[in-house]
Specification:
- This protein is α+β, with helices and mostly antiparallel strands.
- It has a single domain, classed as endopeptidase domain like (from Nostoc punctiforme) (endopeptidase fold (from Nostoc punctiforme), Alpha-Beta Complex).
- It has helices spanning 2-41, 60-70, 79-85, and strands at 53-54, 57-58, 88-90, 98-101, 111-117, 120-125, 129-134, 144-149.
- β6 (120-125) and β7 form a beta hairpin.
- α1 crosses α2.
- The longest helix is centred in the first third of the chain and has 40 residues, at 2-41.
- It starts with a helix and ends with a strand.
- Keywords: Hydrolase, Protease, Signal, Thiol protease.
- One of its GO terms (molecular function) is hydrolase activity.
- Residues 1-19 form the signal peptide.
Length: 150
């Protein structure tokens, strides 16, 4: 009887540590996504600069690369490289997911933004610099080609 109790206790402890580890991974994912969003928000109003990757000026992929880099995740330089080489495709957005846009559905991505929740995204706009806008924005919505979770 004591042996059965010890075996059951050992199994329970193993399962408990498994679920704790899974929770730690989910928490770590949330932490770096939340950190990337926080970094991007701290740069609201920074002017747009083509090829910009510093707080002196960002382009769209520069902002995303910089924000995720400060959160501990290295990303490639361009929106297309991010789209084709990083993360996995998602159809239901969560805060921190990368949203990709193209001039038409058949072309490669030329713009990237970070989804921040509540139907909003943060991005570097050529006209307004780093800003928050709605995902259903009449300019961006028809150009949306998909999202990736890093």
């Amino acid at each position: 009887m004591l042996k059965k109790f010890i075996v059951a206790l050992t199994i329970l402890a193993s399962l408990s540590s498994l679920f704790t580890t899974m929770g730690d991974k989910a928490e770590a994912a949330y932490n770096y996504q939340a950190k990337a969003i926080s970094v991007a928000k701290a740069h609201l109003g920074v002017p747009y600069r083509w090829g910009g990757i510093t707080p002196q000026g960002f382009d769209c992929s520069g902002l995303v690369k910089y924000s995720y880099g400060k959160a501990g995740k290295a990303l490639p330089r361009t929106a297309a490289q991010m789209f084709y080489t990083k993360g996995y495709r998602v159809y239901s957005l969560h805060a921190g997911d990368l949203m990709f846009f193209a001039p038409n559905k058949a072309s490669k991505p030329t713009h990237v933004a970070i989804y921040i929740g509540a139907g909003k995204m943060i991005m570097a706009s050529s006209s307004k610099g780093v800003m928050i806008t709605y995902t259903n924005n009449k300019y961006w919505k028809p150009r949306y080609i998909g999202a990736k979770r890093i």
